[in-house]
Predict the structure of VOC domain-containing protein.
Amino acid sequence: MRQPDIEIYLKDADQEAVTAWLNTALGSCTPWQQKGQTFKCLAGDVPVTWLPKAVGKWHSLYLESDATPWEDDLGCARAAFAALGVEIRCAPGGWQEAQGEEDADRWIKVNAEGEQEIIWRTD
């Protein structure tokens, strides 16, 4: 089932490289508008939020639409890794608060070694 939005975390990713990838994957990006710590743009018709160093060295990329080429976070993570060559982390599926705290720490990392489910405590 298609997720209503997508969020992935990119390790040490360069914003310019991410912008180039978004241009290719989603359509031409508008210039980034900084709002506090975050940056926002439109990639094609998709509102995008970039939060540098959201968790340590990890940058958050949030796509606020279900109109992307990817069904879910993992599909986007795979594409981002293939294009950028940096480790990507994402939730293993949509997470709801009702699922409890333990499930909130379950993540999938995508890197040169493949895909692996991990426990990542982000707080």
User: Anything to note?
Assistant: Residues 6-119 form one domain. Strands lie at 6-11, 33-35, 38-43, 46-55, 58-63, 88-90, 106-111, 114-119. DSSP finds three helices and eight strands in the chain. The mean pLDDT is 91.
